[in-house]
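Researcher:
Attend to token order:
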Amino acid sequence: MGRFFYIQVIWKDELNYLALDQWTREIPVVAERGKIFDRNGELLAGNSTAYSVYARANAVKDAEYTAQFLTAALGLTYEDVYAKLTDKKKSEITIVKSAEKSLVEKIAGANVAGIYYARDNVRLYPYGDLACQVLGFTSYDKSGTTGIEQYYNKYLAGENGEVLFETDLVGVDIEGSVAKYMPAKDGLSARLTLDYRIQALAEEVMKRAMETSKAKGVQCVILDPSDFEILAMVNLPSYDLNDVPRNDLETLNALSRNSLVCDIYEPGSTFKIITAAANIEEGLRGNPSALAQNHIYPSARTRTVDGTTIKCWSDHANGKHSNQTLAEALNNSCNPCFVDIALSLGKETFYDYLQAFRFGNTTGIDFAGETIGMLLPESTVRDCDLARIGFGQTIAVSPLQLACAAAAAVNGGYYYAPRLVTEIFAEDGSVRERTQKSLVGRTVSEDASRILSEMLEGVVRDGSGKKAYIEGYRVAGKTGTAQKYENGHIAQGKYVSSFLGYFPAHDPRYLALVIIDEPQGQYYGSTVAAPCAEEIFRGIIDVNQIKPYTAIGE
């Protein structure tokens, strides 16, 4: 009685499955993968219908005729098809995938014994290489491999169905039996924060910059500082998502990598935004060690810390960079001034701010493979290290980390989790998952943020960021030119030129970080990167028909 109970009750489901598997054969019904749209409803990833053709060797009555027929219909090799049709060891054999409907209709009309077909899907990307590293691609089995396709695969994939045929033990159809259809559950769709118009605009601008400067590569991330929604992500060179170079893994890995999220670099002078924010905040808090906003920095070109001499990029000749305030130091991008700030704040206080700005940690973006950057452990930092961190050396960050930190410095001091997807929804429009604006923490006060933004607006109006200036739109920002290192030494003639800017300065809505890797000829961020940001901002103004801020009052 105990054995009877075990077989009938406990073992029941497994035995039913084994019995079903024994007297049926399955043909898969592939679920339609969910679509991916931009924030405006523009289709970025969809599907085209295709079909897969299968065979059951045991059900094929004339292998030679069937092989000849399939060879002619599908353009295959007779020997390969014949070998599959005569392989009795396998139940179902895939003859071809992603066949056109007209070919499958021809096969179906011939009613050849042992040959079956089922709907398949081919992933289609209407814009080719647009945002290719963000969207990602799928594998041969239609599961997400990289990017959004991978991160949100559990929603996009759906569940495959199948058609069940009753057969005998060797797989031959039972005469008079009726096939059972188990429908597939199509995947859910995703709506991104990306704006394909801004994405296309940024890609066009950055592509020209790459060609003009003969750079190794270029990058750009654009986000909304009010909620950290990502509006565009550009990594060039890129590739066509409809023609993924799967046969060259090294090339594929390089081109499909979203370096804005996954890779790090020394930011150089754009990092001075963070150092300045920390100093302004400490000054407002009454910290006696913080240098006051109107502090006059010595005009000497160098600072010596722990026996290490740190120089300004300028030779300080003819009174250049003499007796500077913090605003002027930002305008001139004078390294020694930021050395003074970092040392005056001290390791403990400065590291508190670095952690508040989430350096050495992830931003929390909904994307796989995000790096935490490289921040020296506080216990190991010497004064000479602290001095260099103050102007963006001896620290490595991802471009996304820097963009988010800068946004949190100028938007009132609010650090939000950046997002790429706003909602997951079904075909009927019903929303299944929705992501909300998520506050991670505070960085500086609103007063400190306002003061900093006024200074950064001056950098674009009067300082090194002049080539990003747009009359009436209150653009603010900071330039950067960082030397590259190879094998622990400075690589002569190799630079990373950048510009981090946003507008309007009093109420930031669009922030862009532009990076030009190893430009040839001119290499200063002020002359190479800032003009790209200006062109992108002008494009955004045109696309969204934004009126001049000074014209409507503040």
In short: The mean pLDDT is 89. The two ends are 86 Å apart (CA to CA). Residues 115 and 300 are 84 Å apart (CA to CA). Residues 335-356 form the longest helix (22 residues).
